[in-house]
Write a structure and sequence with these properties.
Shape: globular
Length: 487
Amino acid sequence: MKKYYFVLLVFVALSCSKTDEFEIPNTVDPISEEVAVQDFMWKAMNFWYFWQDEVPDLADDRFENTNEGREAYTSFLASEENPADFFDRKLKFIEDRFSFYNSDYRELTNSLAGISRSNGVQFGLVRFADRQNLFGYVRYILPNSDGATKDIQRGDLFIGVDGQPLTEDNYINLLFGDNSTYTLNMATFVNGEVTPNDEEVTLTKQEAFAENPVFIAKTFEIGNEKIGYLMYNKFTNEYDDNLYDAFVAFESSGVNNLIVDLRYNPGGSVNTTRLLASMIYGTNTSDLFLRKRYNDKIQAQRSTSQLEVYFADRVGSRTINSLELPKVYVLTTRSSASASELLINSLEPYTDVVQIGDVTRGKNEFSTTLVDDRENSYLYNPSRVNKINPNNQWAIQPLLGRNENAEGFSDFTSGLVPDIEQKEDLSNLGALGDQNEPLLARAIQEITGLSGKRSFTVKTPIDIMGSSQMTEPLHNKMIDDTHYNLN
């Protein structure tokens, strides 16, 4: 069974539409409208934030509802002119690595739906051992993207952008800046060294690019085993039907073993995670999938039924025909985070999860999108955008709590440790979906018991420090969009 280094982050997007869902305590109002954004941030964090009682400036009695108290509150809000600085410096708990914000809630919510600006080249970033420079390696290319039309593929290396060597100081600006077009300076792996090769690849980011997270779904028939293989790269609920169709195909093929490849999956929708778990394990809606743990203020207002989420039997109006597998194989790396870890953790009480690869990222808190809509407890709801304060378009995405599995376990902030350790090898990445690709081959060997003469020795293990997904809102997030009774 699973060994654990303790970790997990979750990211929640609740959408309540009723004004009486939560009882927000009386709060102090500022005497100036110039601090409206900071006022929204403080009030939303005071109510929702998981670590509210750990931040003295968020205490319920921090400001008295008197003239002097309102003046003090206004001065506090004005202490940081930039709302971003106010959020980071005044409201966040020191151990909080993942709460964030956006000055435009529309941009944030679009990106959570898998819509972004992308050239389609998904890459990892690695530090050189002896210096502050970095190099990138291509993980995969998204179909129908600009990258798919260029001479670039999995395993290709690059060391610079527009003639500038990548470093820890400039890589964010060069790769994730406002420039829609850039040129990668390519390299080759020769005798264990990353060596420039004078080749270049120019790429252009497409606006509103939508990524289907079901990257590969196929079946292998090896001996008496029919092995389903799913490479799933984001838990994006807009593509739940695609995920459903993949499992319909697995069932039609008579799959009796399943490999779920989450090696590059940074997280996403909690409800999609629940649906995937149900397709794998079963559709008994009395089986507990997760239990939410909020701050004391929220927890006291929720009933047991409002804190618990169960396995599902439908995707929309379509009935799930689960594979009902007693064992599932999951491929992971340090890029597997949040909802990926939730899938593993929530399946553990019910089925044998064999984790193969590297230790996961370790994210065990969830968050949600909050906007300036006090009547809806600050919860973002797309049907209420006309209720959001028109003078404040900011959104915040604070951590709200933790998700426990049916056994009450949630503490794995150092990552989920694999049963079989097998890091990706820079000198032997292989082709994704090919049964000889090292991680997939290791899982197939575990299923079939056919070891042959193959060695799985990793000559050049990859230890990433970043990836092409690191600036996306879904990165290391768990969005709780589960549907349950809030009345």
